[in-house]
Amino acid sequence: MQFNQSERTKNIEKILTAFNGIHKLPLAIIKYGSLISAALFTIGAVLVILNNTILPYNSFSDMVSKEVVKTSFTLGAEAIIGGLIMDFVFKK
User: What is the pTM assigned to this prediction?
Assistant: First the structure.
């Protein structure tokens, strides 16, 4: 089933109006959780690159840096999903 351009635009506008209606606390949780997740991902990625290129290879630091990257994705998902659930609960 293909959507034409106007239907896609309407769907995007519905999504944007729903996100604009989020309360302050859930929005802050989503915003700062995403920023912390991005910071952790950046730190983990830099550590992985440093461990594999510049620094002498260490299997322990390799494992830790890869776990930091994995944790950043988990933290980001928890912040976004938790914020949206909190907003849904507060609206009821």
Answer: 0.80
